[in-house]
Design brief:
The structure is a single chain. The chain is α/β, with parallel strands linked by helices and 380 residues long. It is built from ten helices and 21 strands. Helix 8 crosses helix 9. The protein starts with a strand and ends with a helix.
Length: 380
Amino acid sequence: MTTSTRGASKAPAVLVLEDGRIFRGRAYGAVGETFGEAVFSTGMTGYQETLTDPSYAHQIVVATAPQIGNTGWNDEDDESRRIWVSGYVVRDPARVPSNWRAKRSLDDELVAQDIVGISGIDTRALTRHLRERGSMRSGIFSGEAIAAESELVARVQAQPHMKGASLYEEVATEETYVVPAVGEKKFTVAAIDLGIKGMTPHRMAQRGIEVHVLPATASVDEVYAVEPDGVFFSNGPGDPATADGPVALMTAVLERRTPLFGICFGNQILGRALGFGTYKLKYGHRGINQPVQDRTTGKVEVTAHNHGFAVDAPLDKVSETKFGRAEVSHVCLNDDVVEGLQLLDQPAFSVQYHPEAAAGPHDAAYLFDRFVSLMEGQRA
């Protein structure tokens, strides 16, 4: 939730955490108040893509890189139709953007979209605090929204938790749209929008795929009305334990043995459809420098992440599911979190990270080719 006014960027501001920790700084972007889950992102670049990623809905994002805003804001790199973060926390905002593609400053764009932020705080100390205590409810207050500390802490503690939050329908498209194939059309894919980023259907289109992006509430009949060669489940925000609708839809797709690919939230949906549980990570994985091993090849990838939940599946064995054998295909080398699943008896797989992002920069691009191979095999 955000209430804000424009301008007055030098107004005093405070960041309040639910455990009572308070950081004082200056307003950055809009002035007012906002609430969300405080999380940190370790990317040194790509803040525009981060801010417009629907998976960050209802979160106050802390930039761990000390200086933010150097490249300004352009009109090409948005991943969706708007900024989705609830608030933004930076240490040292750029005074003047310097990039030939910049149309305006990051500060100006935050103001234009009524995003309340704070600058000038010790983001290193804040990140260490969140690593030790875990992601938590928080609020940013600036200008006239600042009140007694006890009152602000109480207001933060009254906000809903991320665990149990159902958010994917808030960020998904309401109407189906089509991203045409680049060059010769080879396949048709139905992509379920749970918070999809714009680059994802583009990566598929580059491989000759016509992508029909459907709302999160799409029915099985609506999915198969486009006569898909494959079905894709996107990233998205919130607790996967609440996503009964997408789980039921994916189950129906698996029953038809249609080639299936899921990323991020889609990985968690596949986990649930296979009978595995999900759980909330202490502080999650967010950034563009996460090491993941593809256990099917032994290759280690530098990958882009944005998830606070994970699949609870065994790393040391092949599991029997109602759709045949399943195994963990990818694992995070930092903490052994499940980063991918695959079925061994039918064409379905998923990863917990973002293969459309240029983290490696091309380490994960092969996953789209793997999806194409599944569709080619099914057609043959």
